Amino acid sequence: MPRQNIELRIRRQDSPTGPSRWEEFVLPWQPSMNVISCLMEIRKNPVTKQGQKTTPVNWESSCLEEVCGACTMLVNGKPRQSCTALVDNMPDGPITLEPLTKFPVVRDLQVDRKPMFEALKIVKAWVPIDGTYDLGPGPKLSQAEQETSYAFSRCMTCGCCMEVCPQYNTRSDFIGPAPLAQVRLFNAHPTGRMNAHERLDAIMGRGGLVDCGNAQNCVEACPKEIPLTEALGELGKQTTVYWLKNLLNK
Amino acid sequence: MAAPRIAIVGGGLAGLMAAIKVAEAGVAVDLFSIVPVKRSHSVCAQGGINGAVNVKGENDSPEIHFFDTCRGGDFLANQPPAKGMCYAAPGIIYLFDRMGVTFNRTAEGLLDFRRFGGTLHHRTAFAGATTGQQLLYALDEQVRRHEAAGLVTKYEGWEFVGAVKDAEGRCVGLTALDLRTMKAKAFKADAVMLATGGPGLLFGQSTNSLINSGSAAAAAYMDGAHYGNGEFIQVHPTAIPGADKLRLMSESARGEGGRVWVPRRQGDNRAPRQIPEAERFYFLEEKYPKYRNLVPRDVASREIHNVCVNLGLGVDGKMCVYLDLTHIPRATLKKKLEGILEIYEKFTGDDPCDEPMKIFPAVHYSMGGLWVDYERTADGFIDLGSPKNHMSNIPGLYALGEAEYQYHGANRLGANSLLSCVYAGQIGGPAAVLYAQNQAKAGSETPSSVYEAAEAHWTNRFAELARRDGPENPYKIHEELGRTMLENVTIVRENKKLEQTNAKIQELTERWKKASVLDNGQWANAPLSFLNQLENMLHLSRVVTLGALARDESRGAHYKPDFPDRDDEKWLKTTVAEFTPEGPKFRYDPVDVSLCKPVARKYD
To answer: Which DSSP letter does residue B275 get?
Structure first.
């Protein structure tokens, strides 16, 4: 039996430095509702459960099919994309929505994940091609290599892994699991490998791989089941070999 | 003369490719996007990108790709740009291969290719069923490299609201709204390129991302840029419904062998797997024995409409058919279609490897868009040394990707959209550089009063909108707009209903004037931005609707039962809409069909 009404508790915050507050909303149940459609209903009639007029809730979303990463928030306390958070799959009782806690709040459920994009610069997450003119095909790749790399290349910079990582917080310099997994991806590519040392240099200092506390929360939280802990293990090997090589060459 | 700067609006495939090309020429880029560019709508493209690399020994060639594209578009596209695109396609796929895109591979380690609609060749390179995401990420990475080197400056969280023009009518910059501070600011640029995607939101729900309002292109149209072939809107045959959007189930599902069917008997409500083979109606295979399930999208959507509405055979009595993958081994499906299988299961709870998918047609793509120019060579290719390529009728204003109208005619073939976006960026970027470098007077030398005036105009406009406290809710107006557009301006079009739609849009425009902004805040005020967008969307909806009303024929995605045939004599013409405050004014331009003679469009 579907429920008749949907109750939501939403943590609101008007500005990055302002205080936060809870607001409650009640909506009539409709078929195939998800958290996003609830937020859309609220903006068509922004009135709280208590009957008070309020403003539409601010949130970030785009693709609504879990490929863009934008709509990540805490749904009932867990970081996930809110587009795939289907109301009919939720336990009874109010649904709580909160912004991610590891990133600065912009407004309401919207946060600023710029540090994740900046980290991709630090680790040089790209294949340094010569140019975009036509130079023929790239290197051959086995099906097995393609499948392994594809898993890592699906990372949508959503921030779930960062949210659950105990080492990723304002008191630490740790860059977090997502950008590290990109090092694993590009160091495996036949062209990207030529600059593997640059990426390893970037993650061997402060805030790099050694700051990982091996809690393994990241791999559990990833909505795309990216083998993050495998990547971290592999990078451990790569950095050790690289460190030894440097030592012997001195 | 100061070093030129080029402003690019939109960070999907087209915008990012253009940014890379401009940066490679050593010219600075200001890149504007309402979302972090990595979250652009290109991520939603699933099935692949076309290029006649001919790895399967089928004697495929760019010339056949070009023919398929022209015929798929029912011969409405100007042919030189389409030809240029098809011949550049293999090189474009190789380029992404070099950037590290994890394309699926053959046993030998070469790029693998699959079938797609409207062709008999294996021509579509793919990375699982998230090809658009993978291509976008590759360009995002390359742009980040140029950003780290200082040539690209990103303005993420900024919305284009209007072009800045000088006294001669050249585009010399743009005004953008900072979506956090809600302040409008004018930027200087020697050329402005709009790569702002399609207008799916005009139809309320579609397969498009929520950011695809079409508002930026509409703003340019209201600034005097012409809009081409607006009435051509593609309805994709296979999507799944949701309360917030319709989610695409890629054509690649059929490319990998998926079969579309309904029960032969009306009201047969047995579970699909209980219905024996002989009692299933594989309507596409029966009617189109040659192309079977891979007819072009407009054809497939019309057949679904016919089977569900006219024959009453829709699953559960709805506009719904089965898309069946259950005969294909699970391991194959996982390797080639994982992304969409995952999404189907997450949203419906059913595993498509075990249960036929229930699918519905959904608005998907606009063939129409801002009108842009090109320069052809004598042998019918694009003259890459011309600044005219991708320039709108406003000097210095360019348009790329789904925001422009150029490549797909009356209907786009599957897996040609990623290609057209990238090709547009590849040729449009250098064209803008040429333009910027060859102006007698640089755009950026325009007096600062011009920018101050633009900034003041938009500041006043948003201040006025921010005071709106009427009784109407803008999101409800949008919902009504979507409903009427969806009902009347999609698969089947009737003149009477189009006239009613036009009247409805005008009624909604009046109500828009009485809409509340809902939020008086000065920080990250999404309803304020939306209120502005909504007016643009209303204007653009009339371009689509009135363009459709005028075109009394059937061609590609535009189908009128009262005028069921293509009428080349009267209507082999590009629709060009010009903004006036009373509504769009239309003119009709000849189409360059000198390279590939229009023939009857048959897929049986």
So the answer is: S
Nearest CA in chain B to A14: B523
Fold (CATH) for B237-362: Flavocytochrome C3; Chain A, domain 1 (3.90.700)
CATH architecture of structural domain B451-571: Up-down Bundle (1.20)
Contact across the interface for B475 and A44, Cβ inside 8 Å:
yes
Name which CATH class applies to B5-232+367-446: alpha beta
Q: Check if the interface score ipTM surpasses 0.95.
A: yes
Give residue-wise pLDDT tens across range B107-134. Answer: 999 999 999 999 999 999 999 999 999 9
Using DSSP bridges, classify how beta strands A5-13 and A20-28 pair: parallel, antiparallel or unpaired.
antiparallel
Q: What is the torsional sign of CA B335, B341, B343, B349? A: negative
Residues of B designated catalytic: 297
Strand order in the sheet with A78-81: A20-28, A5-13, A95-98, A72-75, A78-81
Residue B569: CB atoms within 10 Å: 7
Please give the full DSSP string across B81-107, using - where no structure is assigned.
HHHHHHHHHHHHHHHHHHHT----B-T
Please write the tens of the pLDDT for every residue from B389-434: 999 999 999 999 999 999 999 999 999 999 999 999 999 999 999 9
Phi and psi at residue B317, in whole multiples of 5°? 70, 10
HSE-CB for B491 with a 13 A CA cutoff: 20
**Token digits of residue B317:** 């009595």
Find chain A residues with C-beta within 8 A of B180's C-beta.
106
Question: What distance in Å separates the CA atoms of residue B563 and residue B230, rounded to the nearest whole number?
Answer: 19
Structure tokens at A36: 């996003």
| Tokens 């809730």, located at residue | A57
Q: Minimal CA–CA distance to B284: which of B247, B335, B322, B239?
A: B322
Residues of chain B with Cβ-Cβ distance to A131 below 8 Å are 24
